[in-house]
Design brief:
The chain folds into two domains: 106 residues, Immunoglobulin-like (Sandwich); 117 residues, Nuclear Transport Factor 2, Chain: A (Roll), CATH 3.10.450. A hairpin with a 5-residue loop joins strand 6 and strand 7. The chain is built from six helices and 14 strands. It is of the alpha+beta class. Strands 1, 2, 3, 4, 5, 6 and 7 form a seven-stranded mixed beta sheet that branches. A seven-stranded mixed beta sheet has the order 8-11-12-13-14-9-10.
Length: 264
C-alpha cells in the first residue's frame, strides 16, 4: 500500500527524471553542430574558424591554442545577442602543428555548455576536403599578418579603450576623416571635435568584426572592413552594421593612418 512518504519519494524521483530529461534535450539542441575546420581534420591553412550550434546561443569564450599550449590570437569577442553561427578570424598565420579550440556558450535559459575540438595545419596536405567545405563561403579575412593590419587593430583598440595618446600616434598630421556626412582634415581637428565622442560611444558598444582585408603596395596600404555594433548609448539601443575604409602610409618604419571613411 502506498503511504504518503512513498508518494512523496516517487514525486521527487519523477521531478528529478523530468529535469534531467529536459536538461539533456536542451543540451543536445544547443551543443556544437559543426565546425570548419572539422574536429580531427587536417587542412593546409586556416584564416577563419567557423562554429555552428544547434540553436541560437551567446558565445562567451573561445580559445585557440597550439600543440605547446600557446594561445593564438583571434578576433573573438563575447556576444551580447543570440545567434547560431560564428565566424572567428585568426590573427596570425598558423604554422605546421596541431591546434585545439576550447569554447563556452550560454543558452537562452542561462545554462552554460562547453566543449573542445582539434584540427591540424599541414601546408603539404591536400586542399580538396578543405576547399569542398569552404567552396560556398567567401574569404572574409586576408592580410591580417601584415604590420599595416596590426596598426589598424591598434587604432581600433585605442579608440575603444579611450587611449588618446595611441590614437594620435597612429594618425598622420594631415589625416582626412569622413564620418556622418562631415569631414575633419587633420589629427588636431579630429582630437578637438569627434575623438572624445567616438571613444565614449565605442566604450558602450560590443563590436564584432565580420570581414577585414588589408593589402600593401610598397609604402601604401589599404584596410577594408565590416563590423556588427550592438549596445545602448544615451538611452538608445544600437544594432547596426558599419563599414570602414582606412588608408595608411609608411613613414620611418611606422604605418600612419592618412584617411578614414566610416559609414553605416
Amino acid at each position: 500500500m502506498l503511504t504518503l512518504l512513498n508518494i512523496q519519494r516517487q514525486l521527487r524521483l519523477f521531478t528529478i527524471v523530468c529535469v534531467g530529461l529536459f536538461s539533456a534535450t536542451a543540451f543536445a539542441h544547443t551543443s556544437l553542430k559543426s565546425s570548419v575546420p572539422a574536429d580531427g581534420q587536417t587542412v593546409p591553412e586556416v584564416r577563419q574558424i567557423s562554429v555552428e550550434f544547434g540553436a541560437a546561443i551567446r558565445l562567451m569564450a573561445f580559445t585557440l591554442t597550439d600543440a605547446s599550449g600557446n594561445t593564438i590570437p583571434t578576433d573573438f569577442a563575447r556576444t551580447s545577442i543570440n545567434q547560431s553561427r560564428f565566424d572567428i578570424g585568426v590573427g596570425t598565420q598558423l604554422s605546421h602543428t596541431s591546434y585545439r579550440i576550447a569554447w563556452m556558450a550560454m543558452g537562452d535559459d542561462g545554462h552554460k555548455i562547453d566543449g573542445t575540438f582539434s584540427f591540424t595545419v599541414d601546408p603539404t596536405a591536400s586542399a580538396t576536403a578543405h576547399v569542398a567545405a569552404q567552396e560556398d563561403k567567401p574569404v572574409l579575412w586576408s592580410g591580417m599578418e601584415l604590420d599595416a593590419a596590426k596598426a589598424v587593430l591598434q587604432f581600433h583598440k585605442a579608440l575603444k579603450d579611450g587611449d588618446k595618446a595611441t590614437v594620435k600616434r597612429l594618425l598622420a598630421d594631415k589625416v582626412m576623416i569622413f564620418e556622418g556626412g562631415g569631414v575633419e582634415r587633420s589629427e588636431a581637428e579630429y582630437e578637438h571635435h569627434h575623438m572624445s565622442a567616438d571613444m565614449a560611444y565605442l566604450k558602450e558598444m560590443s563590436v564584432k568584426t565580420l570581414e577585414h582585408h588589408v593589402t600593401v603596395s610598397g609604402t601604401s596600404a589599404v584596410s577594408l572592413s565590416r563590423s556588427k555594433v550592438n549596445g545602448t548609448y544615451k538611452g538608445k539601443i544600437v544594432d547596426r552594421e558599419g563599414m570602414e575604409t582606412i588608408t595608411l602610409q609608411k613613414h620611418d618604419d611606422a604605418w600612419l593612418i592618412t584617411h578614414i571613411h566610416w559609414s553605416n
